[in-house]
Amino acid sequence: MPVREILQLGNPILWEHSAPIEDVFAEDTLAVIRDLDETLADFHRTHGFGRAIAAPQIGYLKRILFVRMQPTGFCGALINPIITSASDEQIELWDDCFSFPDLLVKVKRAKEIEVAYLDQRNQPQIIHAEGDFSELLQHEIDHLDGILSIQRAISSTSFSTRQEWERAEKANNRSVKARL
């Protein structure tokens, strides 16, 4: 169960479409799920954030995500996930990605979605996600289709370094508190 290197922006694998998993119980499928789990845990430990990772980010072009909502919430692999419905209502937020951790991108995503997938026992599941969880699943499923959040940017000015975003957020919070 090694921690795998996370591919970074510019690696052509990140732009490729992932193939469906044919056998949930195949040894390579099980190994990738373990690697995703370990890599996600390691990234969270070392960076202080991170809730999900897609198989293409570790160089495996198959339709698998691993999600761990911290500290409680959904945890596990989603195999062959597909968005089956999405609300017309959208949310706007700053999105980040392990493949470019110092860059944030302002995107719009569906506020609510439903995702059909297979779990690790090869059982069909449906999950309803709202808000941040909805955005997270859309982001990760995009990875499986070779789509990065930079392609979903609201405009050409919808980019920020993490450092600048944190500085602006700190300043905004100070000014809100000062007005109260």
Automatic annotation (TrEMBL):
Active site at 140
Q: Which reaction does it catalyse?
A: N-terminal N-formyl-L-methionyl-[peptide] + H2O = N-terminal L-methionyl-[peptide] + formate
Q: Which SUPFAM superfamilies match?
A: Peptide deformylase
Q: What keywords are annotated for this sequence in UniProt?
A: Hydrolase, Iron, Metal-binding, Protein biosynthesis
GO terms classed as biological process: translation
- Annotated residues that bind Fe cation are located at 97, 139, 143
The prosthetic group or cofactor this protein requires is: Fe(2+)
**What are the EC numbers?**
3.5.1.88
| GO function terms (MF aspect) | metal ion binding; peptide deformylase activity
Gene3D superfamilies from the xrefs?
Peptide deformylase (3.90.45.10)
- Cite the cofactor comment: Binds 1 Fe(2+) ion.
Tell me which HAMAP family the record gives. Answer: Pep_deformylase
Role summary? Removes the formyl group from the N-terminal Met of newly synthesized proteins. Requires at least a dipeptide for an efficient rate of reaction. N-terminal L-methionine is a prerequisite for activity but the enzyme has broad specificity at other positions.
Membership in a protein family? Belongs to the polypeptide deformylase family.
Q: What is this protein called?
A: Peptide deformylase
Q: Which organism is it from?
A: Vecturithrix granuli
